[in-house]
Amino acid sequence: MNAVAVKALFVLTAIKLIRIGGIVYFILFSIYALLDFYHSQAGPGEMAQSRFFGPYWFAQWLEPGMYLLLSQLFWFKSLYCKKAILILLSILLIVLPSKRFMYFMTSLGDTDAVQYLSVNAGNIALELLLNCVVFIFITFTIVLATGKLKNKTV
């Protein structure tokens, strides 16, 4: 197996992992939100407070909803076969659902937005780098565990 075939195998395994991961993440988040809502039920005459179903529900559901939507775009072969679109979708999947990115975007109207960026830019970059490294290791582990590279030279 040559290097191009290994790269193609890695990319296809990563795409499968992203598609399934998006569904699993949204299901787990929904279960967490429902449990939070159930446990936030107030007694008689009291107002129940749940951040997932309250007045700011959109901010809480935006991250998992966006991650689900972007990850499911990888089902379309016409999208992930083109290199430019694959790179664009991957970057959008890393950056847009990030809570830090959402906090930064909502603070742009504040006077402290520049200060926020200078303080947390390193943390954001480190978080993205760590996510990428962990994803690469998990994908290589899946490729090796499935045995598709067994008895083949690279």
What can you tell me about this protein's structure?
By secondary structure, the protein is mostly helical. The protein has one domain. Helix content is 72%, strand content 0%. The chain has six helices and no strands.
Count of folded domains:
1
Give the H and E element order: HHHHHH
Q: Pick out the low-confidence regions.
A: none
| Shape annotation | globular
Radius of gyration: 20 Å
Helix content: over 70%
| Spatial gap, N to C terminus | 5 Å
Instruction: Provide a count of the helices.
Output: 6
Q: Which structural category do the helix and sheet elements fall into?
A: mainly alpha
Strand content: under 5%
Averaged pLDDT: 77
Question: How many E-type strands?
Answer: 0
Largest sheet: none
Short account of what is shown:
This protein is mainly alpha-helical. The protein contains 6 helices and no strands.
Topology, pairings included?
Layout: H1 3-39, H2 57-72, H3 77-80, H4 83-95, H5 99-106, H6 113-145
Notable characteristics:
154 residues, mainly alpha, 6 helices, 0% strand, globular
